[in-house]
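Dear colleague,

Thank you for sharing your sequence with our group. We've completed the structure prediction you requested, and as agreed, I am returning the results in plain text so they can be pasted directly into your records. Please verify that the sequence below matches your submission; if there's any discrepancy, let me know and we will rerun it promptly.
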Amino acid sequence: MACVNQLSDAWDQNGLAMDQAHDDKTASEQDKAEFLTCMVENVRDYAIFLLDAGGTIRSWNKAAEVMKGFTAMDAIGSHLGLLYTDEDREAGRPQHNLALAAENGTYQEETWRRKKDGGRFWAMIELIAIKNPDGELKGFCKITRDIGVRKSLMEQLAAEKERAQVTLGAIGEAVISVDTNGKVDYLNATAERLTGWRSADALGRPFSEVFHAVDEVSGESQEHQLITWLQHGRLTPQNSPAVLLGRDGTQYAIEDTATAICLPDGQTAGGVIVFRDVTASRQQQRATAYRAAHDALTGLVNRSEFENRLQRSLEHASHGHFAGALLFMDLDQFKIVNDACGHQAGDRLLNQLAAVYLGKIRDRDTLARLGGDEFALIADHCSLEEAYAIANKILQATRDFQFVCKDRIFKVGVSIGLVSFDETVRNIQELLQLADHACYAAKAKGRGQIVCQRPGETAAAQRKDDIDWPSRLGDAMRQGRLQLHYQPIVDASGASGLRYEVLVRLADPHEGVILPERFLPAAERHALMPTIDRWVIEQVLHWLEANPAHAEKLELCVINLSPTTLMDESFLAHVAGLLPQFRIGAEKLCFEVTESAVVADMRKSLAMVDGLHAIGCKVSLDHFGKGMASFQHLKRLPADFVKIDTELVSAVTHSAVDEEMVKSVNDIAHLMGKKTIALCVEDQATADVLSRIGIDYVQGHWIAPPAALAGSVH
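Please find the predicted structure tokens below.
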């Protein structure tokens, strides 16, 4: 433009260089005109020429010749329309543009221009009106620049930007970019949907206004790390998962990543955040975590989580922070309801009673269902007297409780063992054993009782009749009152095959048949289980040899091993010595161990399993799947069968989470070459779900209740 202004000044002072005489110019004016003429002639990037008031070309520089292909001889004397395309001339564009320049003093545009050879180029042009001081139009100065390269680059950039925006708009993740001041300059469609902001409304607004995130735990607003980076040059770690609050109040659990946009010279040009809605997966995680810690039937804390919380309570107590108490509660006469009305009725009773118990405890207390008809309570910050008062409330509430089924009213009782703890108690197992002893003593006193126990008291004081079990069990084995029962394990697909698990019952002349839940814990405490386990194996082998037709059809006989036996290094040698004495294939025998027993000493467990495999026997992992760590245990233990935990199986018909967990256990077990067995199948609906999942075998009272192994050898 400086060049143009100078040309205009020269015209005003000297007139048209081609028509006006030079006689009256001073030497300085001549020098100035020569300088301007030289400059215009030697400019290479701009075509510069003059027009008269009618649009006829009066001058033509060298750049114009190169750019347009017309020589000065071709151009000078021709009308401006020579340089326009045919379409523009037909539309009257030359006259229109001259008129606008004359009216407004200048006219600018970017458009196509014609070359002599008919070709076109993209040009930036400016027409400048040249007038006398009195406003009379004398002519025009025309400046043209070939901007084809720049135009091409701009179009490429625009195309790249369009492709980038189309791509960002199509991806599932939300994308927001900001400038160096933290102001929003772009949102893709997903970001619009999640934030509730239209892109047009969000542009230029502060990032924190559009992306309003709060801490998932505290609910407090979070300053995003992208903004702290732009403002302070450092990242601020997020303390917990974030929740995005949409403009309409909708909440989304999100995961995000952010990065600064850095130029080649190291300067920051803004930043980008990419985030996605993980509400469903986070809900699934919470549901899975909840399920891993809670009983599917009652919603109470389960055994695993209960023991974790008890451990934390003991740790707090060990630092002198507080004293507390532990209550073990075992229902009385519960079996009557199960036998009379079925297990589903029993489940309803447990669910109702759990709700009653929750109404009798403090908010800070932890009530758990340990399994079956056993409950437990952790009472933190609680003296023995206060704990006894809570136990009394539970006892009385149980006495007042009535369960109606099939037009009958059932009443149950509860026996409660109560143990206090403080900083002197360091061992969770000791505390659990004390509570168990106290609960057993409450039953022995006539049921419906509360027995208090303090750490440090002797086992004899805890439960006097406990010392009778060694002699009672010894007599039972010698007198043939330990009996073998079996429960079938059937193919879930309906295929035939003889498979079962061997169970033990105690026939007492005074009490009748005693279930293993009654005497096996005492046997474990008195280190009798290795003897009982050896006795069971010998009895099974004798019975099978005495029944060869049965043994021939038998595919699998599952025999339980106690945690103590699993750690007994002499047991493997005992089994290896027994097998050659009988004509029973070792591959028909499967020894079952619990996951918790295996984890207690993985090294010894692996040695035992490897040894059993070496002599031809199989191994089953019982009660599998209570925790997510189970899969890690399964990787390390070369079991042949996996028995899926009762709590998972019992909930598959009414819990999508449990069904998915059972499916996961089944899929992973199959991936590792193991067969799966589902425990506690109590109805057709459960069996149908398990069959659909692809479980190999099922076992439970609905399939077939335990029955005596006829003609067992003593």
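Summary note from our side: The domain at 467-708 is CATH 3.20.20.450 (TIM Barrel).

Kind regards,
the structure core
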